[in-house]
Amino acid sequence: MSFTTRFAPSPTGPLHLGHAYSALLAHDMARANHGTFLLRIEDIDPQRSKPQWHAQLIDDLAWLGIRWDAAPMRQSDRMPAYRAALDQLWALGLLYPCTCTRRDIDLALGAPQEGAPHHGPDGPVYPGICRTRPRSGPRPTDQHLRLDMAAALSGISSTTFLETGPDHAGTITRTAQDYAARIGDIVLARRDFGTSYHLSVVVDDAAQSITHVTRGADLFEATAIHVLLQRLLGLPHPVYHHHRLIRDSQGKRLAKRDDARALAKFRAEGATPQTIRRMVGLDPVPPSA
Ligand code: GLU
User: Where in this chain does the entry annotate a coiled-coil region (predicted)?
Assistant: First the structure.
């Protein structure tokens, strides 16, 4: 079986040890499988993505010894592909426009008859306020577009994906009930930049012919969304490997704003790529590998 994996950072802050682990693990897996390693820059958010972070991450990855086998894909170049996927879902009647603010949603969820809101990978499950809004005519581009989860699941009783990561290895099944209760009508196109992480990642994993998605365990629940979108859009399902997260000394997950663990800082203090491999628990590789 061919093996193509990727590292897909967002240039919204410095890469830290967690990113280094993710990138090195994916790179090691590609090399061990005589496969292909690709880089994708996830810069759909023009407010948060910065050229300085893009340049720094390329430099950090090269310093770590990571080599990508094709020119990096940039999501900001890929808007036509995302629009085509949204058009496909709109034509199927699976999207609806939504004008709700965070406050509208919180208020609706706070109403006493609603009970405790369920939280999914994107926060509280949307209470459906805009679900009856018209879906005919041209696809609106100035409002959020949500996936009508019930309509998307008509005729689908469950989805499955193959997981090889340490926490859940095996075939993972998500039922229609899981989707309704834990995920709900997620936003697939944001009004401010016309796409979303979920839609773009699915379209681009297919465009880059990714056979194995390697990424952090924090995205495990989001994979159910991606597998469903692959099915709706007629795209192949990769195998998933959700790896452990690198935590700080208090056990907290590292975040981009956590400059203390930035790779650049370790580099400035004289760390070598082998030091970083050791710090994240990866075996050393000979310099020629
Ligand atoms: N861009 C995402 C991040 O930096 C990763 C997306 C993925 O691996 O699917 O967290």
Answer: none
